[in-house]
Design goal:
Elements (H helix, E strand, L loop, with lengths): L1 H21 L2 E6 L2 E10 L3 E6 L4 E5 L5 E4 L2 E10 L2 E11 L4 E8 L18 E2 L9 E2 L19 E9 L7 E4 L6 H14 L4 H9 L5 H14 L2
Antiparallel strand pairs: 1-2, 1-5, 2-3, 3-4, 5-6, 6-7, 7-8, 8-11, 9-10, 11-12
Length: 230
């Protein structure tokens, strides 16, 4: 009897594990209302999900609250683009007293061609704060597009920008992390970090002494700040 129970528990665990592998991605429409499936791509204005029944659906950032893709969470947040309030998906990098988000990087995987119809959104993103030039992104997502149905799927890559948020201190601030270093760019990043990561003299001195910033260093500063200011 005990052997049968152990066998049943083992089979149950294997089934749960198999379900988790099959449907690792999640789209959260509202609290308690979510779908599982495989996310194919995002251009940060919309996201493509292949559901378990192999149907393909597209959600705009205004349609859902967040999605989880390969274990990483992307939240829908408002942002001013060309003096107009819109919504975009931001990948959460750090959360705490100060939140750090990212837009950009790899935005798609090798996408199988849908069986019935093609979805070819093409949305240009200009997600900058306006003062530094922002991130100019063209193209968008392409699923099953192109005239040659035998063409290899394309992996989409966008320039990366970080966005720093501290509740009660105004809108998110953009921190450009690509495009090479320059005195103006590094000073811009330094000013934003000093503006948001306040009441920490030791960290402020380290930021002031930094001559060049990249994504890893920015994230390290935010992580160190959140570890102290909980």
């Amino acid at each position: 009897m005990m052997s049968a129970i152990k066998t049943f528990k083992l089979v149950l665990l294997l089934l749960i594990a198999a379900i988790g592998v099959k449907a690792q991605d999640i789209v959260v429409i509202s609290p308690g209302n979510f779908l599982r499936g495989t996310i194919q791509a995002t251009d940060y204005a919309s996201v493509i999900l292949t559901k378990d029944d192999e149907s393909v659906v597209q959600y705009k950032a205004t349609d859902i609250q967040e999605f989880v893709w390969n274990g990483e969470t992307y939240v829908s947040k408002p942002i001013v683009i060309k003096k107009k309030m819109e919504h975009r998906f931001f990948k959460i990098l750090e959360q705490g007293a100060v939140n750090l988000y990212a837009i950009g990087g790899s935005t798609g995987v090798d996408i199988p061609e849908p069986k019935r119809r093609r979805i070819t959104p093409s949305i240009g993103i200009g997600a900058g704060s306006g003062g530094f030039g922002g991130v100019g992104v063209g193209g968008g997502i392409s699923i099953g597009g192109g005239r040659n149905r035998q063409e290899a799927p394309v992996r989409r890559v966008m320039p990366t920008a970080f966005f720093l948020e501290k509740v009660g201190t105004g809108p998110m601030s953009e921190l450009p992390v690509e495009g090479g270093n320059s005195e103006g760019k590094n000073q811009h990043i330094k000013d934003i970090l000093l503006q948001k990561l306040t009441n920490d003299e030791d960290l402020a001195e380290r930021i002031k002494a930094t001559e060049s910033f990249d994504g890893k260093l920015i994230r390290a500063f935010v992580t160190a700040y959140n570890a102290v200011h909980k």
